[in-house]
Structure formats: structure tokens, C-alpha cells
Design goal:
Length: 266
Amino acid sequence: MYQFDYQRAGSVAEAASALSANPEAKLLAGGQTLLPTLKQRLAQPEAVVDLSGVAELKSIGKDGDKVVIGAMATHAEVAANADVAGAIPALAKLAGGIGDPQVRHRGTIGGSLANNDPSADYPSAVLALNATVVTNKRQIGADDYFQGMFGTALAEDEIITAVHFPVPGFAGYEKIEQRASRYPLVGVFVAKPAGGSEVRVAVTGAGADGVFRCGPIEAALAANFAGSAAAGVSVDASSLMGDMHGSAEYRAALISVLAQRAVDGK
């Protein structure tokens, strides 16, 4: 590593003030991306503002018809929380399947969403459940938040404080892992709102431009909400990524299969 200023913020306001004072500063949440990046000297911020001491960002609970998760809640805490498991079991399942125990006990939902890795799990849940990303300045709907690979609607001095997940009528998540990294080779989250007919299907790990909604499968499930309907959809591979772990065509085939499993619950 190299020399940089370190500040451990005690509140969101203190963290925001530190960012305003130094536009080159970076926020540190769980450190699962930033710390390796610093070690490899791929990023060299002048200052690092640590959010681990901000208690107001760690709460998890149910508020009416939504589940509210603080940005600094770890994956392990989300997975083990009774409110999350009771209201959105698929979200608890997703959190419990991220990485390994070390990652789950350090990584945070806010850090994951701020980084928006194209193979991260959480973006698929946020997009499929039509969640709202709350910052210290505003609220951002899921369809507006994700803006391409590693891109988000966040301003440089904006801090995610919480994520609001509407409690759905149905939600399911299935993925195939890349065994070495444990990132999803493909992950598919399917959701229907409570009392509504809209179906939202979000895919992670496959899109060349990051997480995306799969319109053809959404249309098929809106007409017939059954796993067989999803399985019968042929997904266009032209906008998907291919690498040594799987071709674009393989990922396209997995999307339909995983959507079927998500709907059928297996």
C-alpha cells in the first residue's frame, strides 16, 4: 500500500463532511473491494473515510410493507435477520450465499451496491424487487440506480444510508457459482409485487453491461407464472458476456433454467 489519510466517521454527517472537504477521498464499508484494490495500487485515494463506526447505518427491520436494511448491515446479518427471512426469504437466501463466511461477516449491502460489480448478487435483488436506494441526499429507484458496469446514479459525495425493499407477493433467487471466486456465473432473481400482476426478472453475472432485467422472461411469466413458461424462453446471447468460465450462449441458456428454478423454488 501507500500513504493516505484515514478517518473513522462517527455519523453520516461526519462522513459527508469529510467527502466534501476532500473530493479525492473514498468511503470504506466492508472493504471487500477497496482494500484489495489499494493493495494492488489500482486506486490511490488521498484519504479513506471508514463507515464502520456509524451505528445509524447498521439497522435492519420491517417498516409497514417494506423491509429496511441499513447500508452497513453485513451479508451475514441480513441472512440471519428474522424480519428479512420472514418477509422476503429469497433475500435472506441470497445474502447467505454470498462468498464465504469471511466475506459475509465483513461485506455490506451498501458497499456492494455502491460498487455495482457486474457479478454481485445484491443488484439482482434490488432490481427485481424494485427497491429504493436511500442516500444522505435523496431516494433513487432501482430502475434509475444501476447505470452500466460498475456505474451507479450516485454522486461523488453521496452516501448510501439504507435500502427499502417492498415486501413482494413472491420472490425467488437461484444462481450458478463460479467455484473459485464464488461470484455468480449467472444469478436470476424473480419477483412479483404483493397484489400485483407485474413480474420483474433481474439477471446478474451475465450482462456485458452489468445487472439487467430480462424482458422476454418477464413477459412469459406475466402471461403464465410457472417455471415451465420461463424454461421455454430463448434468451438472446448477443449482449451477454463470455469468458473462460462460460460462453455467452451458455449464460443465455442458464438464465432460462435459473428463472424456472427460482419460480419453482428449486
